[in-house]
Amino acid sequence: MATIPITKRGAEMLKAELHQLKTVDRPWVINSISEARAQGDLSENAEYDAAKDRQGFIEGRIQEIEGKLSAAQIIDPAALDAGGRVVFGSTVQLEDETTGDSVKYQIVGEDEADLRLGRINISSPIARALIGKEEGDTAEVQAPGGVKRYEVVTVSYV
Question: pTM, whole model, 2 decimals?
Answer without folding.
Answer: 0.82
